[in-house]
User: What shape does this take?
Amino acid sequence: MKNPPRNPAALPAKMRRAFPMRNRNSKRANENHNNQYDDEINDMNKKETRQNFRNVCFVRDHYSCVMCGYKSNKENCENELDVHHIISRKIMPNGGYVLENGISLCNKSHIKAEDNLDGYTYDILYNQIKSSKELARAASLKLIERK
Assistant: This one.
């Protein structure tokens, strides 16, 4: 086995496991190794959360763009539609990965929604899915409580 690099944190996550922290006397070294592993698990949970968010929005919206009516289907929706976070993931608690904050849009409508163009305001988008910023925030906070 090769000698471990001087800075294992600089390696990709998969390679870090091959070079665990060797200083057994240091609690900090072991804690850092565990935190890196926890980050990998959290990344997997984020991917599952994101995919579940997309799926429930597509189903609720009948695999269609809510704004223009473009129709897709279960097999093609991942390529033809996107799920837009009405309020940004960065602002909403827990990333806003809740049905109350997502809306299925085609590519053209998604661009308009990203820039709030042509009447694609937060209020109109929320109204289309019978939700509101308050409902979305409350649902996002409930996700945090479940963790």
